[in-house]
# Entry
Amino acid sequence: MLRVNDLHAYYGKSHVLHGVQFEVGEGEIVSLLGRNGSGRSTTAKAIMGMVSAEGSILWGGHELIGKKPFEIARLGVGYVPESRDVFPQLTVHQNLLLGQKKSRFRTRQRWSFEDMYRMFPPLKERQHTSAGVLSGGEQQMLTLCRTLMGEPGLIIIDEPTEGLAPKFVEYVGSYLNQLKESGSSVLLIEQKLTIAMGISDRVLVMGRGAIVFEGTPQALRADASVSREWLEV
# Structure
């Protein structure tokens, strides 16, 4: 279980997160919603040790505050950044190979190359192509798959459909559904409410660096005031 308590984060002297608190349970998909600038991506980066933070972030009994990103990754936390980081000089297949590592959460490899290529057929067609020449959508698919190959106990996914063509959005939706069916724990940051509301067990809404709503997708749909004040543009 991920347990975030009284989390504060900073960019230099700017105080960005103000006492953020939430949990992600085993096998649970939780979506973090909010307008741009509300603190969603900063929350993900704070969990991964990428920004200066105070408070407590417990994962699997380990306190993550103060740990470096590679140490957090070794504890079984996978992170798919919005920036779609790939190794451009390596092929698709080599990128996936780099994602593999022993997992303290799995007794056997759960995700295979065949699983990745089945979820994203364009990657199979381009498995011997350098990642640097892939389209933005293909690079996003590759980043999602490379993270899964590490068998994380928790996967944090930041804006996976941002800027993607509709066909790639469909692929990402299928990927998220398979994560749900597999019982993976997921913290999803997503602008497209139809995807987030359809896949999530619970949703969190952020505003001005704090959680302003927590509940089921059904509860959020029923509360028009939250959507009007914190989500609508």
